Inverse folding.
């Protein structure tokens, strides 16, 4: 089939609901593995109590995500988006599967040791000796896998946001909602598994294996959906064909997967239009307020979540459930807030208003500090909920408004640039999160 001369026939806009569902699942798969790591933070604190796992693992993750994203954003115009996204989801699948295998091997070794020794009288001491505390070797191995997560994240988030930016805004909103849903889903599962395995032998590891197994399945599902189902939806083919006519080269492989080939004349015309598009520098200058706002949103969020919530909130009536409940509250409100902008009446579109709202969030820093020091758990739950609410709402407002008015290739480039600033904000926030440890013993 030759691409060209295809008008916006209504039949070509069919499948929007299906596309929204797929975008949501793809968003879920973009962060479910990493959110599983964050949500089972209590397991890693039990295993590696001296290494500040929630802070260290996040700090390992982000340089690889930001560095890879910077390179991909620079080269986005010539990249094959299909290969990029499939590579990201595949790397997520393999890395998560590796964590499952490592946990299973440790469980088998522990079980074998328990059979050899006096299980009924000494299991508690043996569990402490063999798996209750992890050494630097296993921790470094986990860090390597987390670094792979960072590389996969840069491939998927930048690639998907860039790809969906040249389609309708609802697709980006659905994808971003899926990102938040990964946190809410893992938090809900963590509450269930903690209740189920909390008092069982080696319950931490059992819950972790269940978590990571579900994540592996979801990542593999994303590979299949993106490779086989998504490119064949009529509305997706329409928008990608439209972007190709406007000079985009990044969609050619996805169009070919859908049975659409570009003609030689169209490719020549696309090259000419590609030269007419705004450069990355021009796009960034025109949208610098959006980019900085995204950066600041995630600087603030990641300077509190998850490290502060795990290590700086003290002991309360909820005991070991406290940090898990706080993480769950953040994730649930982050998810809910990403659907609020669907209603145009409550969507913040003013660029000045977005900047003011973003800067106002920094009042949460003293609020969290004094609440952790003097307040009770009710106030902390409220603040954490508000942190998630503002994070998701402002993210969707910016990501859906910024690409409007640009051609397909420019929208793809802008999407990549915005994700770069988002990841840079996360990296900076993770680094600043260590400031909460000032005055406290490091180990």
């Amino acid at each position: 089939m030759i691409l060209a001369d295809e008008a916006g026939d209504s039949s070509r806009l069919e499948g929007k609901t299906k596309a929204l569902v797929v975008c949501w699942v793809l968003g879920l798969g973009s962060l479910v593995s990493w959110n599983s790591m964050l949500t089972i933070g209590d397991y890693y604190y039990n295993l590696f109590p001296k290494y500040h796992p929630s802070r260290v693992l996040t700090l390992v993750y982000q340089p690889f995500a930001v560095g890879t994203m910077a390179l991909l954003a620079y080269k986005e115009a010539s990249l094959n988006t299909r290969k990029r996204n499939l590579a990201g989801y595949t790397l997520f699948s393999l890395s998560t599967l590796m964590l499952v295998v490592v946990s299973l091997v440790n469980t088998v070794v522990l079980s074998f040791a328990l059979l050899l020794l006096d299980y009924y009288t000494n299991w508690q001491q043996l569990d402490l000796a063999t798996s209750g505390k992890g050494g630097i070797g296993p921790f470094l191995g986990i860090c390597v896998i987390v670094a792979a997560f960072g590389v996969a994240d840069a491939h998927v988030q930048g690639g998907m946001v860039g790809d969906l930016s040249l389609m309708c805004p609802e697709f980006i909103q659905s994808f971003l909602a899926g990102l938040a849903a990964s946190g809410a889903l893992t938090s809900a599962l963590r509450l269930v598994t903690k209740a189920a395995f909390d008092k069982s032998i080696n319950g931490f590891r059992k819950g972790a294996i269940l978590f990571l197994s579900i994540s592996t399945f979801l990542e593999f599902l994303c590979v299949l959906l993106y490779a086989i189902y998504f490119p064949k939806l009529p509305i997706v083919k329409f928008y990608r064909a439209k972007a190709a006519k406007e000079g985009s080269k990044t969609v050619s492989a996805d169009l070919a997967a859908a049975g659409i080939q570009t003609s030689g004349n169209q490719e020549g015309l696309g090259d000419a239009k590609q030269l007419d598009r705004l450069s990355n520098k021009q796009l960034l200058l025109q949208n610098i307020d959006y980019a900085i706002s995204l950066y600041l949103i995630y600087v603030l969020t990641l300077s509190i979540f998850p490290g502060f919530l795990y290590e700086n909130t003290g002991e309360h009536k909820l005991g070991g459930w406290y940090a898990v409940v706080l993480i769950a509250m953040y994730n649930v409100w982050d998810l809910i807030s990403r659907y609020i902008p669907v209603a145009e009446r409550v969507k913040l579109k003013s660029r000045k208003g977005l900047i003011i709202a973003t800067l106002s969030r920094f009042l949460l820093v003293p609020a969290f500090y004094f609440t952790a020091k003097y307040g009770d758990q009710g106030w902390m739950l409220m603040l954490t909920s508000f942190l998630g609410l503002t994070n998701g709402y402002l993210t969707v407002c910016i990501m859906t408004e910024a690409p409007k008015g640009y051609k397909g290739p420019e929208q793809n480039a802008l999407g990549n640039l915005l994700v770069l600033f988002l990841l840079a904000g996360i990296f900076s926030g993770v680094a600043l999160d260590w400031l909460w440890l000032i005055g406290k013993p490091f180990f």
